[in-house]
């Protein structure tokens, strides 16, 4: 199997903190954060946090795994949203809302690092490829 063939991957080693940080980043910022796996590919690969604005996978051959694929769906559904539009309240109230939201996200992150899935399916050139997920740390 060629070193640039991602179907060689059998397991992904993932830092739960990287997965959670990538998810939060994408929810709270412009751009997207993913777990990135780069060639050469082999049976056990490390997925690392990667933030981008332009997807370069067609140039690099990298595989991007959305953090939402690595975190349990029930925990994803519990991600805290801002309570209301900040433009419609005064500065003091907006600051209280931001602080509550920040604390809620911190609590969510503590739960999410414990909710990493055991396996996932990579979509590679239109084909599905199942891999196991190994927690780092």
UniProtKB/TrEMBL annotation:
<feature type="domain" description="DUF8009">
    <location>
        <begin position="3"/>
        <end position="137"/>
    </location>
</feature>
<protein>
    <recommendedName>
        <fullName>DUF8009 domain-containing protein</fullName>
    </recommendedName>
</protein>
<dbReference type="InterPro" id="IPR058322">
    <property type="entry name" value="DUF8009"/>
</dbReference>
<dbReference type="Pfam" id="PF26033">
    <property type="entry name" value="DUF8009"/>
</dbReference>
């Amino acid at each position: 199997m060629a070193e640039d063939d991602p179907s060689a991957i059998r397991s992904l080693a993932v830092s739960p903190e990287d997965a959670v940080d990538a998810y939060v980043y994408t929810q709270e910022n412009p751009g997207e954060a993913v777990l990135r796996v780069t060639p050469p590919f082999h049976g056990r690969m490390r997925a690392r946090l990667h933030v981008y604005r332009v997807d370069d996978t067609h140039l690099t051959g990298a595989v991007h795994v959305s953090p939402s694929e690595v975190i349990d769906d029930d925990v994803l559904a519990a991600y805290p949203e801002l309570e209301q539009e900040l433009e419609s309240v005064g500065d003091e109230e907006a600051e209280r809302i931001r602080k509550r939201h920040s604390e809620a996200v911190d609590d969510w992150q503590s739960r999410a690092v414990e909710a990493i899935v055991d396996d996932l399916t990579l979509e590679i050139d239109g084909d599905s490829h199942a891999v196991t997920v190994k927690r780092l740390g």
